[in-house]
Amino acid sequence: MRGTTRPTHPVDEVLPAGKLAVYGFQHVLAFYAGAVIVPILLAGAIGLSERELIHLINADLFTCGIASIIQSVGFWKVGVRLPLLQGVTFTAVSPMIAIGLAAGGGTDGLLVIYGSVIVAGLVTFLIAPYFSKLIRFFPPVVTGSVILIIGLALLPVAALDAVGGGSDPQPGNLRNLAYALGTLLVIVAIQRIFRGFMATVAVLVGLVLGTLVAWGLGDATFDAVDGSSWFGVTTPFHFGWPQFSFAAIVSMIVVMLITAVETTGDVFATGEIVDKRVGREDVARALRADGLATTIGGVFNSFPYTCFAENVGLVRLTRVKSRYVVAAAGVIMILIGLVPKAGAVVAGIPHPVLGGAALAMFATVAVVGIQTLSRVDFHDHRNVVIVGSSVGLAMFVTAQPDVATAVPPWAQIIFGSGITLGSIAAIGLNVVFHHLGPDRGPAVAGTPGDSVRLAEVNQMGRDDFVATFGRLFQGSGEVVGHAYDRRPFADTGALRTAFQESLFSAPRDEQRALMAHYPDLGGDRVADGEEGEDSVRDQSAAGLTRLTETDREEFAALAAAYRERFGIPLIVCVRDSSREHILRDGWARLENSPAQEHAAALIEIAKVAGHRFADLVADANPIAGARARAFRGDR
Question: Cβ atoms within 10 A of the Cβ of 392, count?
Fold first, then answer.
């Protein structure tokens, strides 16, 4: 019998050479500005000459290409084999400047930097399998928060480019705004109008068209091309043999540990995008590639490397998942690093054009984070605290970067980056809330001072369980009793599901008895509080406890007609409707069959129970309650 061929995953698909080149070049353009900014900042801070800066840029691009090929293609246990492009980490900028200045600046400072980079890379390579064992500390609430933070924290970088770049920002310049928004509009229009190949190169087309328009209007120049040579090779230890300082090495190891957190987030984000499961070994492979690339960087006159979130956003935007596209981008970067003229051409792209494209790409990274967080149980207030606090801290530092000057130099590594601070906060809070002390699960009922935890629910007797959750359904506790038999509950979602399944699987006579307990809509018994506080809360949401005499008569007439037709009260989840809709739909439902209305009543009861369950959780947890009210628009 002929065996079946296992289909190739899109990540492992080798595209035609032409597409690899075009898609790869698109990645290079998206990455270029971020790639060269670190050597530019470092050279200016420690006093390097223009010639030395040019060599740093060429060395950076050359090593970026090698690192990207290692990460995407991989060998042995090195490289995650996902479409992840490598670049110099921004986290290292401040520590490297501090190291360089402490060593006297200039090339003397550069040699101490390279010594610390080489050692930190080796350490990262060696500890990668041990760090990957911490993957249990990266549930969706952490990875989603980190990915969201990465996307949000990068948006100001795109915005700065959109207004002219860090060297000459001009927020009031209408041309800059036109170039940025025009490039973004082209990308969006191509995504909307075209399909197939054209849609996947939308970012590249937007960058090319934006640059051509700017060149035609005199706002893009390529004068640097004439002054650049055709060929230039970066040689190992170009500036001299590296120098090793214990303090510098410790600082750089801390940088790499922080970078490992960012890499882990990028790996999970890419796994989400390309629909490939990420495990502990994948994280270890990615970190080994980071460590090896960082060591190579120190040898070839470059700096610490990490996965670049910019290109994660591009993968999401274009939906081209092949890792060989990133490998092609790596080859292109090596060539650009060897051909300074080619680098000068790419450098001619105006900042506003790059910024317009980056706005789309970075925002898609944030969207991936939101998608990951959609799997998080936000009825558990602990998760609300983790996400809210980590994102809040990250945005605080991103919006006010000078706050890093308020802390000692060693802490500026953390407070100098919103991504770093937010990532550490998410991981730390997850450990505090979910791994330290007894885990009794989220609060699901009671009050803040006397809340009932999920673990306690699983240990309750039937009578206590019915007494705690009986208010979800009107009058009868039979359905709640059936839900009790479905213990234990893994989380609040499982508990909620148990009530729903018990309702719909109950015998028909129990269902009819349950329906009979629900009060008439707009009746005096509800307004007077005789049907219980839950009924008051339900019906007051639609204003049914404050009806005029005319409205009350119309609701009474509808209730009587419905009871006469179907033998049960008209049941509507009034929190999801309005008085006008209830009346209109109620009269229309009189034309339905009894079987259809029986089913409709069950669905409405389930909706009412869902709202009451949310109320129980909110009453037990004010933070979750505030969040729920915000989403409902309550005041």
Answer: 11
Q: Which of 107, 236, 324 is nearest to 332 (CA)?
A: 324
Bridge partners (DSSP) of residue 87 are 306
In a domain, 113, yes or no: yes
CB 95 within 8 A of CB 252: yes
Inter-residue contact 362 to 154 (CB < 8 Å): yes
* pLDDT above 70 coverage of the chain, percent: 85
Contact 34, 307 (CB under 8 A): no
Residues 328 and 247 in one domain: yes
> Of 399, 417, 434, which residue sits at a domain end?
434
Instruction: Report whether 619 contacts 625 (CB < 8 A).
Output: yes
| Cα gap 436→311, rounded to integer Å | 36
CB count within 10 Å of CB 399 equals 11
Q: Are 95 and 110 in contact (CB under 8 A)?
A: no
Q: What is the pLDDT of residues 35-83, one digit of tens each?
A: 666 776 677 667 777 677 777 888 888 888 999 999 989 888 898 898 8
Q: At residue 389, does pLDDT exceed 90?
A: yes
499: left (phi over 0), alpha (psi -120 to 50) or beta: alpha
- How many Å separate Cα 268 from the centre of its chain? 10
Domain identity same for 127 and 157: yes
DSSP 165: -
* DSSP state string for 420-477: HHHHHHHHHHHHHHHTSS-----EEEEETTEEEEHHHHHT--HHHHHHHHGGGSSS--
- Tell me whether residue 94 is in a domain: yes
Residues 430 and 447 in one domain: no
Q: What is the pTM of this model?
A: 0.58
How does DSSP classify residue 306? E
Domain range for 193: 11-229+238-434
What was the pLDDT predicted at 391?
92
My answer on whether omega of the bond before 242 falls inside 30° of 0, hence cis, is: no
Burial per residue of 63-74, b for 16 or more beta-carbon CB atoms within 10 angstroms, e otherwise: bbbbbbbbbbeb
Cα of 121 vs its chain's centroid, Å: 27
Q: Specify whether 460 is located in the same domain as 427.
A: no
Same domain, 479 and 429: no
DSSP string, 54-88: HHHHHHHHHHHHHHHHHHHH-BTTB---SS--EEE
Q: How far apart are CA 87 and CA 312, in angstroms?
A: 12
- In single-letter form, the type of residue at position 27 comes to H
> Which helix (H) or strand (E) covers residue 545, if one does?
none
Same domain membership, residue 421 and residue 464: no
Token digits of residue 493: 């979602």
Indicate the helix (H) or strand (E) that contains 305.
strand 305-307
Number of structural domains found in the chain: 2
At a CB cut-off of 8 Å and minimum separation 6, what does 143 contact? 264, 265, 268, 269, 372
Residue where the block lists tokens 């999801």: 576
For CA atoms 138, 321, 352, 334, the dihedral sign is positive
Please count the CA atoms within 13 angstroms of the CA of 248 that sit on its side-chain side: 23
Amino acid at 612: R
Whole-angstrom distance, CA of residue 357 vs CA of residue 362:
9
Q: Is the pLDDT of residue 392 over 90?
A: yes
Q: How many CB atoms lie within 10 A of CB 339?
A: 18
In angstroms, what CA-CA distances link 329 with 96, 302, 582? 27, 18, 59
Could you tell me if residue 420 is inside a domain? yes
Q: Are residues 371 and 515 in the same domain?
A: no
**Residue tagged 């009031």 (tokens):** 172
Arithmetic mean of pLDDT, 128-135: 79
Q: Is 425 inside any structural domain?
A: yes
